[in-house]
Amino acid sequence: MEQRFETFTALVTGISRAIRKIKSEEMVEFHLKGPHVSCLYYLYKDGALTARELSELCEEDKANMSRTIEYLEKSGYIAKRTAQRYRAPLSLTEEGMRVGKHIAERVDRVLSAAGEGVSEEARKTLYESLTQIHENLLRVCNAYDEKGN
Question: Cα 6 from chain centroid?
């Protein structure tokens, strides 16, 4: 059991670090950070989204998402469709579309490189397993929240 814990946590941590490094390196030229990248990626792929929808997709809390949106607005990457502050659909500007396309292309290339040597069947099984582990861990976390920890 101990080796299983060490292997699991080391692999998950290593994957997370690699993703952060790739996001950071790929976005230096645009002065963007990880949360910015995720936000632009989802807006490019899904079209207009609210701050709440982006927060859920990017798995960022409301405060971090607000800062990300503010930065992306000031930098000219996104715009609100209405004057409403929090429920307004956000969409990419022309510059946001250009950068979003770049991000989506890089994501596709990195995913291809990361999946080299992994069959489609193995990939499907991996994602199913990771989804189940994620759901199980969320259930454990929710139990802590219910206890007040």
Answer: 25
